[in-house]
Amino acid sequence: MDLLLKHENTGLLEDNNMRIISWNINGLLSCIKNHSFLPVELLKPDVICCQETRTNQQPEAIKGYHHYWTQTYGSHYGGLLTMSKEPASRIWYGVDVQKIDEEHRILVTEFSQAIVVNCYAPRMGEKLSRVDFRKEWDEALMGMVLRLQTLGKPVIVCGDMNVARLDIDMYQSERNRYEQEGFLTAAQSDVETFLDQGYVDAFREKHPTQKDSYTWWSSRFAKRSSGEGIRLDYIFIPTQIAGKIEDVRQVQGIRDS
User: What pTM was computed for the model?
Assistant: First the structure.
């Protein structure tokens, strides 16, 4: 996801704008080996939020950017990386709840003009085996965001949320399979609860009726070639800066590892 915000101030925002990219890279080392970051680098984003680094190595992904990391869990699952032009003034690794933080799914960086929350939401799993944990995680994220808001800066939340928010966000003939795999049900209502706290889904704010705008396709069933996908990746921004959205899009032609 590529978000471009207009801004009146200088500092973090090059040319008075701020560009944030959120991307589930599905393997950092492979992306570096395959030069997958080059198209992103050419966009000159201010902040890049990557999910699923799948490694505890910390190589330089894009030269000239500050790199902030979380560990993976289970040796090679998950892992977050936030890169920025401006150095972060403060960093939070998680929400200070051991059960939530042991999977390293939330990384917060504070900059001069905004706070950026990079997250990789837990998937509920087949037969909804992790639905209770997902509920706890959603509540913990919301609590963290509300605390960050007291610092007086816009709090921008982005990442792979592992849920399709609306019917338009999924290929309908695949709906039953998506539901069985845990991409629907309870987590949808949690996202709406989050939005009710004063946030907008940036992509749908600009493109409320756009179809076939997916960010994940099952490799197991080779669905990318047929365009049968689902939108799992989001950028949520506070309603008070929603009017500053200049553009938000899914960048085409960039593959993960």
Answer: 0.92
